[in-house]
Amino acid sequence: MRTRVFATAAIALALFGCPKDQPPGGGGPAPSSSGAPTGEKRLKIAVVPKGTTHEFWKSVHAGAVKASREDSVDIVWKGPLKEDDLKGQIDVVQSFVAQGVSGIVLAPLSDKGLVAPVKAATQAKIPVVVFDSDLQGEDWVSFVATDNQAAGKLGGEFLMKAVGQKGNVAVLRYQEGSASTANREKGFLDAAKATAGVKIVSDNQYGGATTETAFATSESLLAAQKAGAGGLDAVFAPNESTTFGMLLALKKQKLEGKVRFVGFDASDKLVQAVRDGHIDGLVLQNPFKMGYLAVKTMVSHLRGQKVERRIDTGATVVSKADIDKPEMKELLAPDLKKWLGE
Asked: Is 103:140 a contact under the CB 8 Å cutoff?
């Protein structure tokens, strides 16, 4: 009887395909032309972000879900709550290795701290695709990310123009060990150093992994540079939490729109700040594309196809002048509900 039921279900599936709207978080509807080969065991891919609270990671998750649905694979989305929980992320990776997942897609919190867990995964015949932030060593299949140094330089060049190629500028760094933001900071500083009329007055302050710590550090930085008395002309922040923390500090001291400001990544509040003229520009990655391509790359590798060692997902700067252009709207407000049901 059970054999007959399974056979009937298989025939129905062949005739009508999968429904188009399956619950988010795993595989999904109708396989595309790149879907699973007939008879292949369904792949289970773990996707491990740096954190799960920032809007950036929600977009990554949505892209990963889209890829899983197209390729008829299952994904398991799990990461630490906060982006300073290195031990938590290591534990998540080790747990997935113990479970024997088909592959792991990882955004490492530390370019050194995740080397050993990734090596262990590779030794267990579980391939790893790294995304968003680089990882030392060679024990990974592909790196899918923004060219972070180029993106930081792009933001720096934009800010140098906004400040008129002169003045005192500062960078609020993120946290030590984060390769992606370190490269953005380097790119920004390269652009600032190449501008003759600019003086870098602060480049050694770290905002940390939360808005709260970034806000506290920003307040200290602004006070130390006497920003309220005109001692600081411009500032750069390399990720969502440092950008928002700096924005709050500028608002508290009534310096929003007076100190020129370029940040990185987007959220509803940051986009509104651009509209209000409190942020001159935001360097935008494409987190949806990043999550999508990271999973697609893993699936291709697992199915025996050659993949590129490094894949650049691009970056651009959005300002008040072009914030309503269709291509910017797609980056700033992707349809997450379609993929995550929220």
From this structure: no
Give me the number of domains the chain comprises: 2
How far, in Å, CA of 303 to CA of 301, rounded?
5
Does any domain span residue 339?
A: no
Half-sphere exposure of 219 (CA within 13 A, CB side): 10
pLDDT at 116: 98
**CATH number of the domain residue 197 falls in:** 3.40.50.2300
Residue pLDDT, tens place only, 52-92: 988 899 999 999 999 999 999 999 999 999 898 999 999 99
Residues 6+ apart with CB under 8 A from 204: 173
- Clarify whether residues 193 and 244 are in a common domain: yes
Q: Residue 132 has which token pair?
A: 């968003």
Residue 38 banded pLDDT, cuts 50, 70, 90: low
Instruction: Give the separation between CA 295 and CA 317, rounded to whole angstroms.
Output: 26
Tokens read off for 196: 């003759």
Q: Return the CA Rg of the chain.
A: 22
Q: How far apart are the first and last CA of the chain?
A: 40
Model pTM score: 0.79
64 and 110 in a single domain? The answer is yes
**What's the CA gap between 291 and 131, in Å, rounded?**
8
Tell me: do 132 and 155 sit in the same domain.
Answer: no
Whole-number Å distance between alpha carbons of 240 and 129: 23
* Chain segment 205-241, per-residue pLDDT in tens: 999 989 999 999 999 999 999 999 999 999 999 999 9
Give a yes or no: residue 61 inside a domain: yes
Judge if 274 and 233 occupy the same domain: yes
Q: Which domain holds residue 191?
A: 148-284
The Cα 308–Cα 300 span in angstroms is: 10
List the structure tokens of 141.
């299949």
Report the C-alpha gap between 72 and 295 in whole angstroms: 11
